[in-house]
């Protein structure tokens, strides 16, 4: 299981996850490939992530979900996408995200993420 | 309110406009108006660019994968504190200010995008992508 944090997450979030799980392979889009993919469209990011076997972690359900539908209809695979419900980051607090990704890694680190779609939502109302 | 303005295009320009409209399944007049509107927006907001996306053309931050509404979302979560938002993204403050200027100029467009993103719950996502697995995450001890 290799993860790519979308650009609306901070590099600090990736660092926090690595702090919890030192062996996890997680990178933020800010630094991925030296930042060379910043400015690319979502389809290009997903294609590159897929090539590298990375699942994209994103809060952009609005744009990415319809894109995944289009890709599926065209028979194009992706490396997995983990959507995060907007309520999971109250006031910009990414603590729950860090814990959720750490837990997911423990449970799914050996899984094949090709074309998988996950939606992480808060268990308790916030 | 709308007003009729007559514009003259060269044959080559008209062909490009027709092709663009065809590629976007849109009417040529509607496409022409939209592209001129986009060009005027970009003249006022040089840090923004309009790109095609899965939900149509939308405003993005130049040199970034982020749409303007995503930066507005981050700023809103930080009580519109520009410096905190910039620090979170690792961006210069001026870049965030430029993006939020665009958001303030087109509030309806940005509010609609934010609302659409927030209304995507597990059920809505499953309607679009039936294979979606839903995972509950505990929110206690947020730190």
Q: Notable features of this structure?
A:
heterodimer; A: 126 residues; alpha/beta; five-stranded parallel β-sheet; 4 helices; 18% strand; B: 143 residues; mainly alpha; Arc Repressor Mutant, subunit A; 2 domains; two-stranded antiparallel sheet; 7 helices; 9% strand; globular
Report what the structure shows.
The complex is a heterodimer of chains A (about 130) and B (about 140). With about 130 residues, chain A is an alpha/beta fold. Chain A has one domain (about 1-120). In chain A, about 35% of the residues lie in helices and about 20% in strands. Chain A has helices spanning about 10-20, 40-50, 60-75, 95-110, and strands spanning about 1-5, 25-30, 55-60, 80-85, 115-120. A five-stranded parallel beta sheet of chain A has the order 2-1-3-4-5, with helices on both faces. Chain A is globular and about 35 Å long. The mean pLDDT of chain B is about 95. Chain B has helices spanning about 10-25, 30-45, 70-75, 80-90, 95-105, 105-120, 120-130; strands spanning about 50, 60, 135. Chain B folds into two domains: about 10-45; about 50-130, Arc Repressor Mutant, subunit A, CATH 1.10.10. The radius of gyration of chain B is 19 Å and the shape is globular. Chain B has a two-stranded antiparallel sheet with strand order 1-2. With about 140 residues, chain B is mainly α. Chain B is built from seven helices and three strands; from the N terminus they run H-H-E-E-H-H-H-H-H-E. In chain B, strand 1 (about 50) and strand 2 (about 60) form a beta hairpin. Classes of the chains: A alpha/beta (about 130), B mainly alpha (about 140). At the A-B interface, helix 3, helix 4 and strand 5 of A face helix 3, helix 6, helix 7 and strand 3 of B.
């Amino acid at each position: 299981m290799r993860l790519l944090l979308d650009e609306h997450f901070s590099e600090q979030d990736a660092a926090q996850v690595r702090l919890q799980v030192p062996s996890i392979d997680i990178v933020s889009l800010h630094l991925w490939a030296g930042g060379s993919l910043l400015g690319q469209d979502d389809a290009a990011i997903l294609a590159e992530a897929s090539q590298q076997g990375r699942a994209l972690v994103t809060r952009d359900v609005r744009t990415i979900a319809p894109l995944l539908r289009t890709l599926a209809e065209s028979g194009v695979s992706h490396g997995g996408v983990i959507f995060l419900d907007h309520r999971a980051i109250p006031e910009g607090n990414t603590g729950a995200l860090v814990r959720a990704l750490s837990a997911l890694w423990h449970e799914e680190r050996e899984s094949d993420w090709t074309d998988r779609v996950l939606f992480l939502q808060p268990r308790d109302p916030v | 309110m709308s007003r009729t303005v007559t514009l003259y295009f060269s044959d080559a320009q008209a062909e490009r406009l027709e092709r663009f409209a065809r590629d976007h399944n849109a009417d040529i007049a509607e496409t022409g108006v939209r592209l001129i509107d986009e060009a005027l927006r970009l003249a006022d907001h040089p840090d923004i660019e309009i790109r095609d996306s899965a939900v149509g053309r939308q405003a993005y931050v130049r040199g970034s994968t982020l749409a303007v509404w995503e930066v507005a979302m981050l700023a809103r979560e930080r009580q519109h504190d520009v410096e905190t938002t910039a620090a979170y993204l690792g961006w210069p403050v001026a870049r965030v200010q430029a993006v939020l200027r665009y958001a303030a100029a087109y509030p309806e467009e940005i509010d609609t995008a934010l609302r659409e993103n927030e209304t995507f719950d597990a059920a809505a996502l499953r309607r679009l992508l039936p294979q979606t697995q839903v995972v509950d995450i505990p929110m206690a001890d947020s730190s």
